[in-house]
Amino acid sequence: MPRMGRVVLPNYPHHIVQRGHNRQVVFAAAEDYLRYIKDLRELKEVWGVKVYAYCLMTNHVHLLVAPSESAAGLGQLMKALAARATRYRNRLEGRTGTLWESRYKSSIVQSEKYLLACCRYIELNPVRACMVTSAADYLWSSYNARVGVSPESDWLDLDACFEMLGDTAENRQESYKKFISQAVSNEELKTIRLALQRGQLTGTTRFIDEVERIAGIRIEHRGQGRPRSDR
């Protein structure tokens, strides 16, 4: 199946995964994680990109981000993040060459139905990998910042989906904790995972048709694995 060019739309959330070159380790020590999070916090402002969730794993990163009116900002953000991490590791290890795969994976996400689900998918990644028993135990994701445990929690962006969780920050945080702790269906996991792997869309058929009209191209391969209804 030929690879389709990446589709990026302004003001839409995008689920991003970028892996280390040949799946090599990209985060070996706490300082590595801290530097990437610091760079993400700084560069999202430079390129006008909203950040809803993140999780830094040993050899890859998950991000849920939305470019502003300039869709190009997303690619510029990813390029700048990768370049900074590569320069840092090369200086540290006295090496040359790339740290990351040349092409990151991306899926446009339907906000009202799948944005929170993608946040949960991202922040539970260390739990599914059996690295921790709960999202709160993992230091290198957005979960603790989102629920107000981290002292530096003010830089994550709020979509309307988060605001609907409660009237106050405290209520939203408690509702979000409950949401993350809920059992996740296999259908939800499959929808998010396949959309990301195929570079397709995370959403209902109506959303897929809407985005394809906006983009002016066929994005989804109308076959196995495509969400079947608006349920």
TrEMBL record:
Q: Which domain of life does the protein's organism represent?
A: Bacteria
Instruction: Name its GO BP terms in alphabetical order.
Output: DNA transposition
* InterPro entries, per database record: Transposase_17, Transposase_17_sf
Ranges of residues in domain Transposase IS200-like: 9-125
Please name the GO terms that the record assigns under molecular function: DNA binding; transposase activity
Q: Which SUPFAM superfamilies match?
A: Transposase IS200-like
Protein name according to UniProt: Putative transposase
